């Protein structure tokens, strides 16, 4: 009993309670960055289901994206004056290597054995920027495209015969 009186008289018990509460409070705090919000989506996830168009007055390129790392996009390209488009799926490459898939960048290398292509997609405001690199047996080239979101119906584009 003397010990209890002593604890209350010199505020030791209050200090112990304060330390216990502080410890419990701090141990229950967490920095949960994965709270289900969409801000942590990768660029491919954000682009999934969207269609994009590039034109320079003569040439036209379209991309549609899928949230699928083994088949991330489809591509149509052609000339304004032509009635048909070349069609290509990323999954038709011999191998596909994703180098980066972050919230603002998607970089993929498609290997065809004798040649490779590097696609570097990045958002630039409301447009999609593509830096395209091709390597065909030691000959390298780089092209730059700026795409705007499209509402064209790509499934209705006429595909050129082989």
- Indicate the CATH class: Mainly Beta
Strand content: 35-45%
Query: What can be said about the biggest beta sheet?
Result: 9 strands, antiparallel
The helix/strand order is HHHEEEEEEEEE
Structural class of the secondary structure composition? alpha+beta
The number of domains: 1
Question: Which whole number gives the mean pLDDT?
Answer: 82
Please bin the fraction of helical residues: 10-25%
Sum up the overall morphology in one term.
globular
Q: Overview of this structure, please?
A:
The structure is a single chain. This protein is α+β, with helices and mostly antiparallel strands. The chain has one domain: Lipocalin (Beta Barrel), CATH 2.40.128. It is 19% helix and 42% strand. It contains 3 helices and 9 strands, in the order H-H-H-E-E-E-E-E-E-E-E-E. The relative contact order is 0.15.
Topology:
Blueprint: H1 2-9, H2 12-28, H3 43-47, E1 51-55, E2 59-65, E3 73-79, E4 86-89, E5 95-101, E6 105-111, E7 115-124, E8 127-136, E9 139-149
Antiparallel strand pairs: 1-2, 1-9, 2-3, 3-4, 5-6, 6-7, 7-8, 8-9
State the gist of this model:
By secondary structure, the protein is an alpha+beta fold.
What keywords describe this structure?
alpha+beta; Lipocalin; 162 residues; 9-stranded antiparallel β-sheet; globular; single chain; 9 strands
